Fold each of these.
Amino acid sequence: MATHKDKPQVVVLGGNFAGLGAAQKIRDYAGDACEITLIERKAYLDFIPNIPLEAFEGRDPAVTMHMDLLSALAKDNIHFVQAEILGLDIDAKTVKIRPNERPGAPEYARGYDYVVIALGAKLAYDDIEGFAEHGHTVSDAFHANRLIDFLENDYQGGPIVVGSDRFEQGHKGRPDWLPTALAACEGPPVEIALSLAHWLGERNKGGPKDITLFTPAELIAEDAGEKVVGKLLEAAGSMGFNYVNKVEGIKRLTKEGIEFTDGRSLPAELKIVLPNWKPHDFLKGLSVSDEVGFIVTDMRMRNPDHPEVFSCGDAAALTVPKLGAIGHQECDVVGRQIAGDLGRLSEAEANKEWHPEVICIGDMGGGKGFYIHATSWFGGDIQELRMGKMPYMQKLAYKEIFFRNNGRVPSWGVPISEWSIETLLPS
Ligand SMILES: Cc1cc2nc3c(=O)[nH]c(=O)nc-3n(C[C@H](O)[C@H](O)[C@H](O)COP(=O)(O)OP(=O)(O)OC[C@H]3O[C@@H](n4cnc5c(N)ncnc54)[C@H](O)[C@@H]3O)c2cc1C
């Protein structure tokens, strides 16, 4: 498909939640005022938040959690380039790419008028000593299937630890209202511990008392707020889970257990960990990045020094915690901003305020889930926690709606979910 070179060229880097969402929002608000090209190494979207649930319910996430990206993009006349992104030249306004359908392709430079950096973060398991030999996780299909295989065939009923390594957040350009997080995203470890306990129980292989949740922070999932976490920990404690906080980080994993950087250690036959969410190496050192490599933006997701550079999702420095739900909110901001620049939205519409919110629905096993809605991390006063069948059903329904609508969740989707859970379920 040829591009119209006379129109402003918007290039979106990354095609998972934030990349696809931003490209669609730009099309929604800017209409045909620009050409949009999305560059991504794989031709599918990976629905990461439901990977643990799928694995514990016996489905292979590689079969059930991949959504065709090309047909979704074609519906909105968004060009797709399958390539590995190698670097950016911010002054020359170019992206360096290598097509990756067949090995052997040379490097190409791709120019842009606007670039949206939606490349997520790398999950740095390779920084954890002993992970390959002794560690497990569920953040992708490979590791989820490897974990289920271990549980089915090798697990002997010994102690289990579940938790996160220390997250390194940048400081450059960070607003005062955004606190320092010691872990990037702690909904997943809570979810994994709960659903794993159910999985073990069903097979008479163990239960909550065998599992210790650990966190580098004072409080696990601290971005959900003290009230929510207090209730979560009370519920988990009454089920029999063990809990260890302020471990600082993971020193190494061994056959016998886990060692923390604060000097403590725990015996563990099974170690399920989430690592540091680290920016991609080629983003570090760019004039638009903070000192670790996350992209610095204002509340409009625009870099203050390079107004043609936007970022959303996990790659953006403002996205803390690293949650798909926050990336989703940011995509709308990006779409409005670019449409405003291109004269398709009024200033008021383009600059509509963004109010970040933590929204997280996690699986608990046995057809139940937990729902967290909080703004306290960002200085607000919302701290809602609900548990029961409805959050579980909504977690499944959200994925179903997302896939059926090519990644477009109707505007009433999130509000109706919030309203129904918060109104109909007791707190
Ligand atoms: C186990 C687990 C459970 C989670 N559960 C939830 C949940 O319940 N709710 C929630 O809101 N969030 C959840 N999250 C977080 C959520 O998955 C992320 O916040 C979300 O995926 C971020 O979206 P993104 O598009 O910014 O980045 P990503 O999803 O990481 O996508 C980045 C994209 O960029 C592409 N890319 C990267 N580098 C290159 C390159 N060099 N060249 C070409 N392409 C490249 C990648 O292939 C990828 O498609 C969970 C995370 C994990 C690990």
Amino acid sequence: MPSRPVLYAQLFLCTVNVGWVTVSFVFVEHFTFRRLLFRHMWIWPFHSDSIIDSGVGDVLLNPWRELSWTEKGRGSLRKNLVSFKPACQSLNQVRVLLMGPPGSGKSSFINSVRSVMFGRVLLLPFIGTATKGFIKKLKSYDIRSERGGKPTALTLCDVLALGDGETTGLTLPDALAVIKGHAPEGHKFQSDAPIKAETSGYRPNPSVNDQIHCAVFVLNACQVMTTSEDLTETLRTLQAEISDLDIPQVVLLTHVDQVCHAVQEDVKFVYSSRILQEKMQKAAEVVGLPVSYVLPVKNYSSELSVSCNTDILLLSAVHHILQAVDDTFEDYCPPTPADASPVTGICSASPVQCQSSPVFNV
Ligand SMILES: Nc1nc2c(ncn2[C@@H]2O[C@H](COP(=O)(O)OP(=O)(O)O)[C@@H](O)[C@H]2O)c(=O)[nH]1
Ligand SMILES: [Mg+2]
């Protein structure tokens, strides 16, 4: 017969400030000895406006974003990705470009999204801690619904990492050439050879399907507070230039498991962690976008099998990216008379032909 774990009890004194009223209460919780030890490592300090309800960090009472942390929630997010079709019928694939400093987790995100779909952690060769990053060329990865399955409408594009200044890493003109669709697949970036009409495979007249439909800035939560002035400048300049092209942009904040013990225990605390809230605010400030554009994720990095909550956070980030693309490109899909809504006149839910894309809109 399996032995039952010995249970320990602990008294918690909690104080909650609601306006000018302070409510104090005591509760008792039971847990095993191992858990008891773990809890005491992170239980201090207490803050007056938060409740340490998990015992593993500074966790706010109410999460500021809601997610359904259930198998069902994961299933429906996964299904949404598999069945996603861009609202703009001319778009075959949604091409999402990941940009960020070396080691921020760009390649890991691609690996992680593929892992979610395959149901097991993949060990692709392009991830690591090389100081300048492994990827030197433009490489696009289809996301398939399962191993050997049909590609979904999402393509994730990896490029050379951003440098600290203008002299290293992906340059602004090269980034814009990729976004506008001029750079051919596999283009090898060279600091002394910017992409131009003479570049081999250069596309002088790229189609809407050659361009990038969402720019994602990837930042490491462990390093975001100490982002250099040069990198901040690079990110903000890119952000402003991409805004001029009317391409949606979001920030992917990776390594969230490494900045908060509660999140390390379980990523479902990501939107209840005060530390994470601060990091997300900083990430938004660094890039120059609102906090609502910041999507935290934990990439698969040390584990060999996928887990439900990590999948949910990754799929939720993908969902928001696809949503941002639909919201933006919808404006460039004028409704046909049959599709037009009598009240608002905006695109109907059914896919319609995209007459001009943001980049090429004049
Ligand atoms: N703990 C943790 N490690 C991560 C995460 N994302 C990436 N890594 C690790 O960070 C390192 C650099 O990641 P990589 O994807 O190669 O970065 P890239 O240069 O931006 O493509 C690798 O060792 C990854 O395993 C994350 O969310 N959490
Ligand atoms: Mg990489």
Amino acid sequence: MLSLTAFILMLNHIDAEPDPSGFKLIYDGTNTFYFQIWGTESLTDTWDALDVESGYNQQQTWVDPISLTTQKAFFYRVNKVDIQTPNDIDGDGIHDLLEHSHFFLNPLDPTDATNDLDGNGLDNLQESLIGLDITLVDSDADGMEDGYEVQHACLNPQLSDADGNPDGDAIANLMEMLLGSDPCIANTGTGSLSVVYVDGLNGNNTNDGSITFPVATIQKGIDLVSSNSVGQVIVAAGNYTENNILYNGVYVQGAGTDLTISTGRFDIVGVTNAGVRAMTIADSGGYGVNIDQSDGILLQPESVR
Ligand SMILES: [Ca+2]
Ligand SMILES: [Ca+2]
Ligand SMILES: [Ca+2]
Ligand SMILES: [Ca+2]
């Protein structure tokens, strides 16, 4: 004998009617609540989670995908849940509303919490607990992936901190990532990683390139870093009209758009892991940057014109 019973909990209004394609629940939606639908074949059994439905201020219909003809006695229960305090029907740690709003998550499947949808090294549960976007490799779009930022406690995956320097060693966070050094531990001495300062106005190419005694041209800065191995050339605001040749592992960083302006050319040929950023590269009559047969090149001038 077929017996269908709808249990109505905390709902203002609900209709239940048989439907050839399955048992149908019709209820009044609301913007401030969502609904969990549970079912069981026997009131002495545990309730099984059947679905999560969002509210809306209109009549909602939910149809059980199991057809009536194959259904034995069945009982339904609808729970109304405040969207401000969502539950977690599958108990995987990711709340129902987040799962319901992303088609690739299933509020009834606890295994999707351990997937890493965007492949950034953090699984979906870790991202949801931190409040990161589980669809974005780099939630704050600062060039450093979420997983990298979480692994380094001095970085903030929800704040654009590529230019920050929490270890106070003169190498900005993004540069540390690209150079393979730890952004949270100051690089002491020159070692294999060096920083050379360039100041077109106050520098002199006979200087050592320290912050106190900067060199005058970008190329001199590149040459000094390259002679040491890898590192960063920090170029002060000003106009630079030289042509430059970039080498492996050297990153040139200006003071920002329209502050550091290069009207010379950057030749990046046969180079691995190098870059130019935070400066304006103006057209010097042909092209500002020539990249050829190179790999891992970061080119992030604010404007190339
Ligand atoms: Ca969940
Ligand atoms: Ca992820
Ligand atoms: Ca980031
Ligand atoms: Ca640093």
